[in-house]
Specification:
The chain crosses the membrane at residues 31-50, 57-77, 104-130. With 134 residues, the chain is mainly alpha-helical. It has helices spanning 7-10, 29-50, 56-79, 89-95, 106-133, and strands at 97-99, 102-104. The protein has a two-stranded antiparallel ribbon.
Length: 134
């Protein structure tokens, strides 16, 4: 089934720089590192609140799976890097992120990407505070 392409969705689209590869997922690596750090911080908070000898193996398993969730895509991006390079942070801040419904400013991208790890850490801190208060 053919769906019509809405012209207004792409009206404000700007072409990407020619020296930039499409295989880098258009996000700056610092955002990937921030998400990774946020999830590992949550694991650290949970270990600080509930960690004991019997939970060491499950927490190691959590850490291995979490590391794999970020390492495998990073390796995948390097398998066939194609032409171009990752955008610099200044380019990312200037260009934002092209989406299907139009361009998204870099500030909006950062908020949308980092909201989950930040809320997860806040939730972990609240649970840890309840644990230590009881």
């Amino acid at each position: 089934m053919n769906m019509p392409i809405h012209a207004q969705a792409f009206a404000a689209a700007r072409p990407l720089r020619r020296n930039r590869g499409e295989h880098v997922f258009d996000l700056h690596p610092s955002l990937h590192i921030g998400v990774f750090a946020g999830f590992f911080a949550y694991l650290g908070i949970m270990w600080a609140a509930f960690g004991e000898k019997g939970l060491a193996i499950p927490f190691v398993i959590f850490a291995v799976f979490l590391a794999a969730a970020f390492a495998v895509p990073a390796w995948w991006a390097r398998v066939a890097p194609g032409e171009g390079r990752a955008p610099s942070f200044a380019e990312f801040m200037e260009e934002g992120l092209p989406t299907e419904t139009g361009p998204l400013a870099a500030g909006g991208v950062i908020v949308q990407v980092m909201i989950m790890p930040v809320m997860l850490m806040v939730w972990g801190l609240i649970v840890a505070a309840i644990r230590f208060a009881v």
